[in-house]
Amino acid sequence: MKKLVTAMVLVGVCVASGMTPAFADEAPDGVLEAIVADTAPARLQGDELVAQVGDVRAEIPVVPEVPLTLQSGNGPEISITLPRGDNNVEAPAREGAGAVSLDLGDGSRIIPTIRSNGIVQILSVLHDADAPTSFEYDVAVGPGGSLVMAVDGGVRLLDGAGQEVASVAAPWALDALGKHIPTWFLVEQNRLTQIVDTASVDDVQYPVVADPAVSATYYRYDAVNVSRTYNWTNKGIQLAICKVQAGASRGTCTMSAGYELQTSVDTSFGLTKGFVAANVGVSESRKVTGTVSWTSPPASAGSSYKAWAVGTRVTYRLEKWVGRRVLGMSATRWSLESTSGTLTSFEPQVGFAVGQ
């Protein structure tokens, strides 16, 4: 194993005023320097730099043979195998607090980083016209995971249930003078390839820098349009019934029954009943017991009476929000993905209502 060089080695790439959106909030000059300055603190642990940003943990390899890993909270671990060149002609060099420079020996260099907001950014640096123009990353997203192209040219990383757990931002590439170089992703099963099309641009000034940026995906659920009805008769829960017997011109009937009821909670998006109950203000664990003991007034034969549960009815909708982090921004950017239909919770109380 090659020894990690801890002195900073910067690849000098400057851009003009026409910056890509990825650097909209970065310094206009010295893109790599700005990125390295914004890396999260990391500690060297074996063959990896380990960084923790909030609930995001990233392990950045100091040798290309070790995959990069990213995990958010209790989500699946995402493993990314970095490109490998002909031969590593230089020792790996640590850059800043949370980045490593890996010389691939083929005219290119890979600089995996974890930014201060938890985004993992893997810089590809092409030093000259003989450098490779495609970079392959094998991505594992837990059992049954998959990669799906997004409409903006980025890539969505899905778990085995088909839910997005991370995303790769749309790719970009710049030459040393800030000229945009056409670049795009290709997805084949679990392999992500970035193509950097230097051949289509005249007078490319090297080095050229490009990057995939991987961000964990967050979810938030809100209860909206919450409405309460107190002392509501729940005719969906019948506690007892009686009927005036045939043959009696005027008679009575009596109901006598015990009951035990518990709060019911409608849910959606796979959320637990406890989570929804807490957000709409009912007690999921509430149980009530009681007895129905009631005699009807005199009524004609065949008349029937029913006893129903009473309590608090709550109606609401649930919203599912998706959050992603963007380079240059510390806050998570949220967007509404879906809204449920009208849902109902019922919190029973001791007592009953009678009707025909």
Number of helices: 2
* Alpha-carbon Rg, integer: 31 Å
SS strand fraction: over 45%
Give the overall average pLDDT.
Answer: 85
Can you write the helix and strand succession as a string? HEEEEEEEEEEEEEEEEEEEEEHEEEE
Q: How many strand segments?
A: 25
List low-pLDDT spans.
1-29
Looking at the structure, what is the overall shape? rod-shaped
Cα-to-Cα separation, first versus last residue: 84 Å
The structure class reads mainly beta
Largest sheet: 10 strands, antiparallel
Helix content: under 10%
Explain what you see:
The N terminus is likely disordered. β3 and β4 form a beta hairpin. This protein is mostly beta strands and 356 residues long. The strands form four sheets. Strands 6, 7, 8, 9, 11, 12, 13, 14, 17 and 18 form a ten-stranded antiparallel β-sheet that branches. Strands 1-2-3-4-5-10-16-15 form an eight-stranded antiparallel β-sheet, with no helix packed on it. Strands 19, 21, 23, 24 and 25 form a five-stranded antiparallel β-sheet that branches.
